[in-house]
Amino acid sequence: MTAPARPTPPRRSDATRAAILRAARERFAADGYERATIRAIAADARIDPSMVMRYYGNKEGLFAAAAEFDLRLPDLTAVPLGQLGEMLIRHFLTRWEGDETLTALLRTASTNPGAAERMRDIFAGQLIATVATFGTDPATTARRAGLVASQILGLAFTRYIVRLPPMVDMDPDELVSWIAPTLQRYLTGLPEN
After folding, report:
1. Which carries the bigger pLDDT value, residue 11 or residue 49?
2. pTM
3. Radius of gyration of the chain (CA)
4. C-beta separation of 186 from 151 below 8 A
5. pLDDT digits (tens, 9 = 90+) for 83-131
6. Phi, psi of 132 (to 5 degrees)
């Protein structure tokens, strides 16, 4: 007769990695990719900088790990067809306002090819599947997903990175009223009803 297996306690390295990633996300969001340093991230995580290098190799490797991001796209199949654009823009506004990782990734993607590739992977891998669910011509799915991304990323860039006053000053409902019809058309390939 064998004794019941005891749960494996978390390894110290798991906690260290988690602390590094938390600190990196905050630092990249606050300072952007170019100004964030391994030393600052290590100090924020209360560890030696050599530990950051041990786990992630370099700043780009750390950023790529910190930028693991799920857009958490909603299931739009239950949404009335005429409300798809509104639902999607509201979702993205909530995501941008509630998580600094996308802001850090967008800021970094504008100057760093590795981060730009990561952003492309995130949007292509997650958004195309959602867009493919709708529309009249499957051959245009990638193009429509690209157009949706252009609206979402353009909004995020002007509102959260550049902080363009008209974009920052608009409340979410006003942004939805302006952007939802365009997203609706991109999602369905049809004009808003």
Report:
1. 49
2. 0.72
3. 20
4. yes
5. 999 999 999 999 888 777 778 778 878 877 777 888 888 888 889 988 9
6. -60, -25
The Cα–Cα gap between 153 and 103 comes to 10
Residue ranges of the chain assigned to CATH 1.10.357: 76-188
Nearest alpha-carbon partner for 65 in 98, 30, 127, 23: 23
Q: Which CATH class is domain 12-66?
A: mainly alpha
Task: With cut-offs at 50, 70 and 90, classify the pLDDT of residue 22.
Answer: very high
Enter the CATH code of domain 76-188: 1.10.357
The confidence score (pLDDT) of residue 4 equals 60
Q: What's the chain look like in SS3?
A: CCCCCCCCCCCHHHHHHHHHHHHHHHHHHHHHHHHCCHHHHHHHHCCCHHHHHHHHCCHHHHHHHHCCCCCCCCCHHHCCHHHHHHHHHHHHHHHHHHCHHHHHHHHHHCCCHHHHHHHHHHHHHHHHHHHHCCCCCHHHHHHHHHHHHHHHHHHHHHHHHCCCHHHHHCCHHHHHHHHHHHHHHHHHCCCCC
171 half-sphere exposure, CB direction, 13 A CA radius: 1
Domain with CATH 1.10.10.60 in the chain: 12-66
